[in-house]
């Protein structure tokens, strides 16, 4: 659940895999999920390299090849994806012992520098939709004594400023409120824009009025819906999905931005024709 709501908001991802164990079943699940929710770019970190004996270094090469094949099988460019080898634990210990450590002084710390360079080089800075109406899915909510209710989340599009009017939409009756404060990483802001993870202080809104999964939006820019049509892929058993068919009336859990709700499938369409059931591996 957390992986789904998190992955849906990523611009890119670091896939961490043990250099000792190689790809595990959850590695496949994470790659598939990243692909399904539209994460275009991945960088791989082969962790725990310090636990590989010098005489067994070819294991790292085998894990590298295995991962590239696995990534390619899910539609990623396996041959091109950067794979960095290192040890997060030993890098952390080195930095804790010497907070002023520099690149070139410790190979494990260097591996983290290499990882971040790969992220900078391989994962492009996305173009933010700052010219579109403001929209933010709410991830969490809390109260500040004497100030009011704060909704946190990642701004999906548009910009927001102190004094702006916003609507609280979804899961309950739509409410209108005013932004009285903005904060990001414990710093007060005048404005926030698409891509920012931000806390928004809302006037006249109680904590009980706000639920994870609601969205804040520019007034009149969106409407909530309880029925929709979607193109879906049914996971196979090997991909962590089902091994039996699904029929009309099935009640799955729907994950939409930061919320999850139980819904019902009322109709299946395949190539424009209505069908009664679908099998694992089907696109409908």
Structural key phrases:
single chain, 284 residues, Rossmann fold, Elongation Factor Tu (Ef-tu), domain 3, six-stranded antiparallel beta barrel, three-stranded parallel sheet, 5 helices, 18 strands, flat, GTP binding, plastid, chloroplast, GTPase activity, GTP-binding
| Overall shape | flat
Distance from first to last alpha carbon: 23 Å
* Quaternary form: single chain
Helicity range of the residues?
A: 10-25%
Q: Major β-sheet, in short?
A: 6 strands, antiparallel, barrel
Instruction: Supply the CATH class of the largest domain.
Output: Alpha Beta
CATH architecture label name of the largest domain: 3-Layer(aba) Sandwich
Contiguous runs where pLDDT drops below 50 for at least 5 residues: none
Beta fraction of the residues?
25-35%
- Radius of gyration from the alpha-carbon trace, in angstroms: 23 Å
Q: Report the average pLDDT across residues.
A: 88
Give the CATH superfamily of the largest domain.
Answer: P-loop containing nucleotide triphosphate hydrolases
User: How many separate domains?
Assistant: 3
Topology pattern, helix = H, strand = E: HEHEHEHHEEEEEEEEEEEEEEE
- What's the total number of strands? 18
- Determine the CATH topology of the largest domain: Rossmann fold
Secondary structure category: alpha+beta
